[in-house]
C-alpha cells in the first residue's frame, strides 16, 4: 500500500500548481492527475454537478488503487469534499480552502483581498471560514470569471489577460489590501504577471504548500508514505489530450503522457 499512487483532481490544469508542491515535498510518491477540462469552468457550475464529477473521479482513483485523494480545487472542495468523506470514511482525503487564516495572521493593514471563483465565494463553507478566522479583519472578495479559461488556453501573460486581471485587482488595492489570497488553484500560475502589477509590499498567499504538508501528515499517521526512490506521474483529461500535452511543459515543467478520461 505504501507504494500505491495518490490521486489528485482539479477541474483543469490549476491543480498542477498543487501537484508541484506535492511532488516537491513527497518526491518518492507516484501521482495520478485527473483534469476535468471537458467541464471547465467549475466556478460557474452548480454544486450538484460538481459533486457528481467528484464522485466519478473518486471512483476512478479507487479503481486505480489510489491510497489517498487530493481535491486540488477550491471550488470542488466546497461542493464535494463532505460527500466524499462520508462515502470513503477510511480514505485520506485532503481538500483546499482559501488561505484566510494565514492571511489574517499576516496582514498589517487589516484588509485582505480574496480572488476566487464565484462558486467558492458563494459557498457556505467559505462563509464559515470567514466567520471563524476573519472576525478582526476586513475581507474584500472578488470573483474572477474568465481567468481560468485563459490559463487553460496556456495564456499567462497576454495584454488581454493583464487587462482582465487589472480589473479584478485594482479594487482590492484601492480598498487598502496588503495581502491577496489566491483562492483558486489556477491563479498561482499568474503570480509573475500579478507581481508586475502590484506594489512589492503586497503579499500573495495560496495553500498549495500547506496541502502538501497536510497530505504528508495524513499519510505519515497511517504509515503510508512511499519509501522507494521511484516515482511516476500520470495524467488524464476529459478535454483534448493533445492540448493538455501541449501546455503541460508550460505549467508542469516536464512533458508527460496524457490519456483521455471519458467518464
Ligand atoms: N481550480 C479551481 C479552483 O481551485 C477552479 C477552476 C474552475 O472554475 O474550474 O477553484
From TrEMBL:
Q: What is its EC number?
A: 5.1.1.3
- Claim: Methyltransferase is one of the keywords in the record: no
Q: Which UniProt keywords apply?
A: Cell shape, Cell wall biogenesis/degradation, Isomerase, Peptidoglycan synthesis
Question: Catalyses which reaction?
Answer: L-glutamate = D-glutamate
| The UniProt record lists the keyword Isomerase | yes
GO BP terms in the entry: cell wall organization; peptidoglycan biosynthetic process; regulation of cell shape
Q: In which pathway does it act?
A: Cell wall biogenesis; peptidoglycan biosynthesis
Q: Which GO terms describe its molecular function?
A: glutamate racemase activity
- The transmembrane residues are none
**Which top-level enzyme class is recorded in the Swiss-Prot or TrEMBL entry?**
isomerase
Question: InterPro entries this protein is in?
Answer: Asp/Glu/hydantoin_racemase, Asp/Glu_race, Asp/Glu_racemase_AS_1, Asp/Glu_racemase_AS_2, Glu_race
Please list the residues that make up the active site. 73, 184
Q: Which NCBIfam families match?
A: glut_race
Annotated family? Belongs to the aspartate/glutamate racemases family.
What is the role of the protein in this entry?
A: Provides the (R)-glutamate required for cell wall biosynthesis.
Spell out the protein name for this chain.
Answer: Glutamate racemase
* Gene this chain is encoded by: murI
